[in-house]
């Protein structure tokens, strides 16, 4: 895990401790998050997960905003309990009052869509292509069936694959 990110998590905790005049248990921090989310706070596990790809591509803003955003979730949970709304007034208070940041719910980082393999299935009625994801293709191989909405025949794998 990058030292800058770890240092920023610690700095956010120290700010919160100075503001609330109390100590907070430090979370476990993971750099194993993929997909569209920049960060996730697992409240009951006291765990922060961050997306290394989005961190690399948006380092300055990520360190300032995303890390504080996720730490604020854990601080709000420890201060106010588990019955608060994720981006409710308690979380917003911490973002504005402690970190002096805008309480943005979502990031605006550009996310490149990667190409995906599609498995081409066809129906006997008109030969129309039905591109299946790898996950759906695996389900078919385990016995699940998918049907054409027009003729109700089982869709059959054509043997073709393509990148989309």
What's the quick description here?
The chain has 164 residues and is an alpha+beta fold. It is built from 5 helices and 6 strands; from the N terminus they run H-E-E-E-H-H-H-E-E-H-E.
DSSP summary, beta strand count:
6
Shape-level CATH architecture of the largest domain: 2-Layer Sandwich
Radius of gyration: 23 Å
CATH topology of the largest domain: Zincin-like
Can you list the strand order of the major beta sheet?
A: 1-3-2
Write the layout of secondary structure elements.
Blueprint: H1 3-20, E1 28-30, E2 39-42, E3 47-50, H2 52-57, H3 59-80, H4 89-98, E4 117-122, E5 129-132, H5 134-141, E6 156-163
Parallel strand pairs: 1-3
Antiparallel strand pairs: 2-3, 4-5, 4-6
Helix pairs in contact: 1-3, 3-4
Please give a structural write-up:
With 164 residues, the protein is an alpha+beta fold. The protein folds into two domains: 3-98, Zincin-like (2-Layer Sandwich), CATH 3.30.2010; 117-163, no CATH class. Helix content is 39%, strand content 18%. It has helices spanning 3-20, 52-57, 59-80, 89-98, 134-141, and strands at residues 28-30, 39-42, 47-50, 117-122, 129-132, 156-163. The strands form two sheets. The chain has a three-stranded mixed β-sheet with strand order 1-3-2. The protein is elongated and about 70 Å long. The model has no long low-confidence stretch (mean pLDDT 93). It comes from Stutzerimonas marianensis. GO terms for molecular function: metallopeptidase activity. This is SprT family zinc-dependent metalloprotease.
